[in-house]
Amino acid sequence: MKAVVGTILVLGLAPAQADTPREAPAAIEVDREVAPPGRGELGFDTGAPVPGWAAAVSFGYLSRPITLRSAGGEAHPVDRRETLALGAALGLGDVAVLDARMPFARQTGDRLAALGDLRALDRWVPGDLRIGGRLRVVTTPRVDALLRAELTLPTGDEHDFAGEASWSVAWNLIGRFKLPAGIVVAASGGIRLRGVEVMLADRVVGDELHGGVGIVVPIPAIRPLWCVAEQVKLTGELVGILGDEVGGSTGPSPAEVRLGIVTRPRQAFTIGVRIGAGIGDQIGAPQYRATLELTYHGSQRLIPASASVEAEADESLEP
Fold first, then answer.
1. Which runs of E-coded beta strand occur in 122-183?
2. CA 100 → CA 51, 75, 81, 259, distances in Å?
3. What is the pLDDT of residues 161-171, one digit of tens each?
4. Bridging pattern class, strands 96-108 and 124-126
5. What is the 3-state secondary structure (H, E, C) of 231-271?
6. By the 8 A CB rule, do 26 and 111 touch?
């Protein structure tokens, strides 16, 4: 991965930085879910279309995303966190999408008491602002390929595990595969580069590879609960991060599995619910999480075929 970083430095896309990680162990974001607003399918960008524009609000609960262990026992710098995130997305035709997301959280935990720092954890904290853009590069009736770039600005509370010490940029390639019966399989993989590497205990939070794979399966119409095909979908995903090695220390490599359900009670609204749990004992792998996301689509060009089916279903229910 260092070869990639070096190439970018030569190109002048990132400033030079010291090889020594910064001693600011709380200057990391322990919530690693990066769901972009306006989609509502999975916890990562699946390449789902965004016709017109969309606004989203999400509520998340996170349990023990970081645990520090020593001979004296274990400590939880962040024991639990409740997050409200506001976001919006703008579709530029069928080719490009722009989006932004800003989180705010309430949290409890030990902060760095286990390391001798007795300052209390801030309860109410802002998070880092994320600005993203996506470009569709290949499209066929069954397969789409897309490129996504994302910039994270350090607007969060970097003293309380709610924000990065500096900016970060990420690129990833997305593959979206449309199978029969409305099933969608999505895969994403890429790299994240941080402006500052941070030392936390025996881990260095720095550059990393990240990826995910997920599936969305529609449930057939069940009258009178819902009357339109693809109005309710089940989701499953596996996401993971591979931390870089810096000076003999490796970065956190958390992984997480999530299950969910997505429904569209009205054409303009999408509701998504996800639950997840971390795999292994890594910084950023929570004990469990729960997310509720509400998305409003401001375009009337939403899946006209489904809209006509819904209209026909409504007519068939009339006496």
1. 124-126, 129-139, 143-153, 168-178
2. 16, 34, 21, 24
3. 999 999 999 99
4. antiparallel
5. CEEEEEEEEEEEECEECCEECCCCEEEEEEEEEEEECCEEE
6. yes
Q: How far apart are CA 32 and CA 192, in angstroms?
A: 12
Count other C-beta atoms under 10 Å from residue 283's C-beta: 24
**pLDDT confidence of residue 108:** 97
Q: What is the mean pLDDT of the chain?
A: 85
The enclosing domain of 263 has a CATH number of 2.40.160.40
Which of these, 309, 317, 304, lies nearest to 228 by C-alpha position?
Answer: 309
Domain holding 140, by residue range, is: 2-317
Decide which of 299 and 15 is more confident.
Answer: 299
Q: pLDDT digits over 49-69, tens only?
A: 998 999 999 999 999 999 988
Q: What is the radius of gyration, based on Cα positions, of the chain?
A: 21
